[in-house]
What we know:
alpha/beta; Rossmann fold; 43% helix; binds NADPH dihydro-nicotinamide-adenine-dinucleotide phosphate; binds 2-hydroxyethylsulfonic acid; SDR_fam; Sc_DH/Rdtase_CS; SDR family NAD(P)-dependent oxidoreductase; oxidoreductase
Amino acid sequence: xxxxxxxxxxxxxxxxxxxxxxxxxxxxxxxxxxxxxxxxxxxxxxxxxxxxxxxxxxxxxxxxxxxxxxxxxxxxxxxxxxxxxxxxxxxxxxxxxxxxxxxxxxxxxxxxxxxxxxxxxxxxxxxxxxxxxxxxxxxxxxxxxxxxxxxxxxxxxxxxxxxxxxxxxxxxxxxxxxxxxxxxxxxxxxxxxxxxxxxxxxxxxxxxxxxxxxxxxxxxxxxxxxxxxxxxxxxxxxxxxxxxxx
Length: 246
Ligand code: NDP
Ligand code: 8X3
């Protein structure tokens, strides 16, 4: 009997980095299982890559249970579901936005990881890739809730690496800088003009740039653990230092 086809689970795969990663991983030979809340968008992505679309809300434990119960085998988990809401300073920011960011980026990653770890271990060569952010390395004014959440993602990723030491599980954090996706549309609560301004006059990363990195990490040989990657556009040297044409 030959080796079974490895299975990759990608959360937040209905758009942006998650959708592009599902495609790149399918091209690299993985069977892909895609999770997100917008099932119509998710199904479109799944159809285009020959994957399986399953509804998932990472902020809801019962949704995570139903999703992970439906995953029979798991060799790779890409914890990508996340984002930011709001860009107010701490003095003006609202609890509900902080809670959204913590629940989605941090609790979501923890919940899905906890649920799939037994299957990742069973695979004999499991891998977890967490999508962090430059915002998890560097704080910036108006980033309070998001910076805190992505710093927490960085912390839990390192904890997981320590806890899995000696076991057949690899753990990686990929921290992109500016990537042109629906991220800013969500952050600015649907204000397209504000979202577009984030990418104006500069040459940001594309979701495919990040997906290529995800696929590269996922296809290293089993003894190689890529611990952390900071991936920035040439036009960005730190979270808020971005070159723009006049
Ligand atoms: P998008 O807004 O395009 O994608 C976010 C994805 O997360 C969507 O598929 C969305 O699906 C999913 N998602 C959001 N909330 C939930 C939830 N509760 N349960 C399940 N899925 C959810 O943005 P990006 O592709 O840019 O974001 C992907 C990741 O990359 C995020 O973790 C983000 O923080 C990170 N990142 C983004 C950067 C950027 O500049 N774009 C830079 C650095 C990191 P749905 O709404 O259908 O549930
Ligand atoms: C998204 C990039 O710089 O807007 O993680 O926080 S940033």
